[in-house]
Design goal:
Blueprint lengths: L2 H8 L6 H15 L3 H8 L3 H10 L4 H11 L3 H6 L7 H11 L1
């Protein structure tokens, strides 16, 4: 997959709540964990986690968790920049976005 296709799938530059939601869902799916498992692992209430994902408004706590646990950079979550991801993580997330 070329870089232009990666940017299209990641909606690079799109900071709308819908685009952030799209990326958050892809990251969750990439982890292989359920929403409840991720919420617990991140130290969030399940309802808080779901609310943040659905609204496309991740907290700093959630973004920090994704960075430390899965190497998913804030710049990808908020702005869709796939260049900020390690190659294996980028491939796994883009597979979920395709």
């Amino acid at each position: 997959m070329d870089y232009i296709e990666q940017e299209r799938l990641a909606r690079t530059g799109d900071t709308s709540p819908e685009a952030i939601h799209h990326r958050l869902v892809a990251v969750r799916k990439m982890t292989g964990m359920t929403s409840k498992e991720l919420a617990s692992s991140a130290g969030l209430k399940y309802t808080t986690f779901i609310s943040q994902e659905k609204s496309g408004s991740p907290s700093v706590k959630l973004m920090t968790y994704y960075l430390k646990a899965f190497m998913v950079d804030y710049n990808f979550l908020l702005g869709g920049d796939p260049a900020r991801l390690p190659a294996d993580v980028r491939e796994a997330i883009l597979a979920e976005l395709a």
